[in-house]
Amino acid sequence: MTATAGAAATARPADTPPPLPLLPRRRGVELALLVGAVLISVCGYAVVGLATHHALPGGAVRYGAGLGGLALLAHLAVRLRAPYADPLLLPTAVLLNGLGLVLIFRLDLETPGDHAAPTQLMWSTVGVTLFIAVVLLLGDHRVLQRYAYVCAALALLLMAVPILFPAVNGAKIWVRVAGFSIQPGEFAKVLITVFFAAYLAANHTALAHVGRRVMGLQLPAGRVLGPIVAIWLISVAVLVLERDLGTSLLFFGVFVVLLYVATGRTGWIAVGLLLAGVGAAAVGTLEPHVHSRVEDWQHPFAGIAEGRGPGQLAQSLFAFAAGGMLGTGLGQGHSALIGFAMKSDFILATFGEELGLAGLTALFLLYALLVARGYRAALGLDDPFGSLLGVGLAVLPALQVFVIAGGVMGLIPLTGMAMPFLAQGGSSVVTNWIIIALLVRLSDRARTPRPATPAPAHRRRPAPPPIAPAQGAGR
Fold this sequence. Notes:
Elements: H1 3-11, H2 27-53, H3 60-81, H4 89-108, H5 117-137, H6 148-160, E1 175-177, E2 180-182, H7 184-209, E3 211-214, E4 217-220, H8 222-241, H9 245-263, H10 267-286, H11 288-298, H12 302-305, H13 312-323, H14 347-380, H15 384-408, H16 426-447
Antiparallel strand pairs: 1-2, 3-4
Helix pairs in contact: 2-3, 2-4, 3-4, 3-5, 4-5, 4-14, 4-16, 5-16, 6-7, 6-8, 7-9, 7-15, 7-16, 8-9, 9-10, 9-15, 10-11, 13-14, 14-15, 14-16, 15-16
């Protein structure tokens, strides 16, 4: 051993572990991906104008500048306050939001009296503003754990308010005042996820090991599981009264997934699927509004056979079929035949018709990437609350995409939810930006290098004596 190596060996105490390797921040990669996401969206906007009017749309520069400015501000906030955040979360969200604006602009051409793209861009601006606020102001996600019951109470209040307002398209999920409308249930889903994560993190040991075993399933004690089940039942009851079964299914799915992650008991998945099936069968039979959707799902072409013409689901299936493998091209489809919900519930049909199976595959991969990066952030955290919160926030868009895509493709009954970032809806796009902001904070916490901690006193070993140089080494 040389003198330099010997000095290095004696410089660090034996009870101190080697320093952790520094992870790259990847902010340059994020900026490059943001540029690509904005360019793809602007190109889509231009293609729609060329396909429909054989000229570039007049607002292409304004649209590109607006989307690019929002992306740049969000990137600067991440660079300043979350330098180790996952570099794929923000660009993926910007690309999905940009594609949604392109599709809404394309469908606005079919409805000259109802232009939704400017309003959607305004709501996107509000969403990015809240994204920046969360990234800048939320220094530590563990602060949210202190307000678990406050989040639960606020979520229940938000879900109950629409009961006082008239139903829209058969569901009481909107609050409309002086021409302004909002969907409180969209914000409630984030709050209820925070509550589920906080409560399960505090009681995961009791949920997994305390209680009695029934039919091979370890059931937790009622005093432990009771509060969370009670709040979940109240929320589902409120949503059933509002006939918003899509959000009810979403809450139930998040509850079951987080319960499984917290306890590690696979039996909860089976119990959750069984309860979901029983509840769906009961509501689909007893509730007329839901029953009509089940009938449309079972017989999507009944209207054609009876001479009434195709319904919305049939038109959606025709749109997917017309798209084929590569699609008809942006601006060259006929999905406007779907009717009033073409910009919201059925916007995925426009995507499938004009971009085909290839475009749908790319879209679903973007959503899968978003969910996977959320799971990765959850795995990198060392506190139970952060891990459960990351899983819950990642499950929210995953379940939404499954429920919406399954409904418009005829795989399951339609529930009337909004495709994340893609569909028209201010409450939805704002909530999704808040979810991305929380995932950015979680991923920054997970990837930030932690200082090496010395070993406990009872495990320390005395430093070895320095090695004497061999005889004759200095001769």
